[in-house]
Amino acid sequence: MEFANPYFLLGLVALPLLGLWMHRPGDKGSSALKYSDVRVLAEGPSIRVALTRALPWLGLLALGLLIVAMARPRRLRETGTISAEGIDIVLTLDISGSMKAEDFKPKNRFIVARDVLRRFIAGTHGDRLALVVFAKQAFTQCPLTLDYGVLEGLLDQVEMGMIDDGTAIGMAIATAASRLEKSRAKSRVIILLTDGMNNAGQIDPVTAAKAAGALGIKIYAVGVGSKEGARIPVDDPIFGRVYARNPDGTYQRTKLDEDTLKKVAQLSGGKYFRAADPNALARIYEEIRKLEQSKFEVKEYRHYQELAGKFLWPAIVLLALQALLSCTWLRKAP
């Protein structure tokens, strides 16, 4: 046990002096009591008289307990330091219409990508994460946070069709980089997941990647989908599930601009990955986690169990008991 305010304990030194002052010898000749019958004295002091004499000691004991309570006794529960891995990562997710492609069986690309991101978040410890989603525009779904529960909840709210269709890769990079611009982390990373080529936005991907690289931000670009591409499903209100077609009647297929994604990664000092199936996508995110690790020490706060109440409540009870007895059963005549 230790005390948060030990200087209050100096008050305990005064208690013996106060006790001596309270029971100092009086002037024996100053007053006298006359008894009509000395046989009362022969019987000795009654229990009531003895308790009356002990009554001041209750207040003195209560004062001692209050002094100890003010010193804040406490018991240390835990302390120490832990070694953790910490970086700032912006997860950037493509939610354009082509992510509905069903070549990631048994689900489409978007559902698989969201599941992989959810597992990535669940396996993260000590890193700050953010989430940026994009289609024709890009916006921040969640800023940098250590509250992974909140991030997972916001990820679950991401749906296809939230933004007008398109693929603004450059805007996605710029939005993600703006979230990391003021970060003081030694390692700042954008994990960009897309299955298409840039066809929207005011900033092209290469320019955005150069700006991110100048800020010391790495981009790990992840291209998803098979090499031959996949048909894009469309939910028609009349005919139900159909597939998008070109003007000549042929089926539209997703087309991944790997050359641009490789250049984006290279310009920022990152790396490009190709995920042709769900298992490959999950492995890529775990590989990126291993590539980006910066060790630092985090001191745990000290957790104490406060013990002042074990002294405070008995003191209050003693003071209340003293006041009650002195006004009732042990009341003195004037």
Provide the descriptors you would attach to this structure in a database record.
2 domains; Rossmann fold; three-stranded antiparallel beta sheet; alpha/beta; 334 residues; elongated; single chain; six-stranded mixed beta sheet
Please give a structural write-up.
It is a single chain. With 334 residues, the protein is of the alpha/beta class. It has two domains: 1-16 and 46-79 and 301-334; 83-298, 3-Layer(aba) Sandwich (Rossmann fold). 37% of the residues lie in helices and 22% in strands. The protein contains ten helices and 13 strands. It has helices at 14-22, 39-42, 47-70, 109-122, 148-156, 169-180, 205-214, 258-267, 278-291, 309-327; strands at residues 2-3, 73-78, 81-85, 88-94, 128-134, 138-145, 188-194, 217-224, 233-236, 240-243, 271-275, 295-299, 303-306. A six-stranded mixed sheet has the order 6-5-4-7-8-11, sandwiched between helices. Strands 1-2-13 form a three-stranded antiparallel sheet. A hairpin with a 3-residue loop joins β9 (233-236) and β10 (240-243). α3 (47-70) runs antiparallel to α10 (309-327). The longest helix is centred in the N-terminal third of the chain and has 24 residues, at 47-70. It is elongated. The two termini are 46 Å apart.
